[in-house]
């Protein structure tokens, strides 16, 4: 096992002190062509997020949601830190297994799985997987009869960026007990309950409610002869600059202490944006501009700017993740401020990044920065209209790299069978030393 492959190492810059993203941006914008957008990735930011997680929710083992950002450096970093993974397809499973991650550190957390993907998971010993319907149970019994099943219930926040309850999760009162009985009659091994309150949740008390409902289902299953030992509390955790998991961690820890005081029950989660949102900064460039005149006065009514990245690439998060990216300018722009619209580079009028914002007048080749661009951007981007996708420039501090290499050595010494818990303990000792 190696923290970074040779190809990845060539893309990662090691810095002596802390990773200073503003200074890196200043350097790159002076050196690079203005033709193409690019990302600055701060690996140390992901490491700090992991440290905060294990300090604030020590019982909850994170299973990173690969769909959020499947960049290999992201996945390799989290694998080395001892995080586990939430995979939704055989493609994601293959990507994580290729990093040397043990199959027991993967949950196949797509309640509706293609048969070929079930066969792939079974052939590669990925046994833990979710379900929320009787039909899925029959399919699992056919293709993966020794699966460790986790029943996904619906308990959704009223305030979430991306609600998921319309698509996944069974009703916890009527459907869930019935599905547990059906699984029992089919002699399938159900080991626990999962839920997802919604991506980008801002209604944190919903976790308490969901955990209490899960407790009731644990108790019900015991009456049927099951001994559930896994609770998956899903995702929904904030990850942008200026946010914190302190409040949600307090609520979750309180609920776990009340409803799952027995430490024999394993608690896992599926954070995505928490780990990567703030680690990626996007740099774009003004390629064209247009002044729109007021016909009555002949004066400028609105400025329109056309960047070299848009909704078909990095800003797909506007369409698919309901985000509202905020531009940040480099340098001291002067002059009159205008109502402005920011567009992407394609020929589609849907390709709008910001509808209306007040900005000082920008010039061709001015840089425009967007923070918090690590979640649900890169994996969904396409080269529509022939425009190239942004490159990613990765940075890591020397101290963090040495710590990661030390963790890799620990894993190698145990023939890559070091448990998630052991790696997390080793990581904490290194960081806190």
TrEMBL record:
The active site is at residue 347. One of its GO terms (molecular function) is ornithine decarboxylase activity. Its cofactor is pyridoxal 5'-phosphate. One of its GO terms (cellular component) is cytoplasm. GO terms for biological process: putrescine biosynthetic process from arginine, via ornithine. The modification N6-(pyridoxal phosphate)lysine is found at residue 67. Keywords: Lyase, Polyamine biosynthesis, Pyridoxal phosphate. It comes from the Eukaryota. The keyword Lyase applies. The keyword Membrane does not apply. Pfam families: Orn_Arg_deC_N, Orn_DAP_Arg_deC. Residues 44-277 form the Orn/DAP/Arg decarboxylase 2 N-terminal domain. Residues 38-374 form the Orn/DAP/Arg decarboxylase 2 C-terminal domain. Catalyzes the first and rate-limiting step of polyamine biosynthesis that converts ornithine into putrescine, which is the precursor for the polyamines, spermidine and spermine. Polyamines are essential for cell proliferation and are implicated in cellular processes, ranging from DNA replication to apoptosis. Belongs to the Orn/Lys/Arg decarboxylase class-II family. This is Uncharacterized protein. The lineage of its organism: Eukaryota, Metazoa, Ecdysozoa, Arthropoda, Hexapoda.
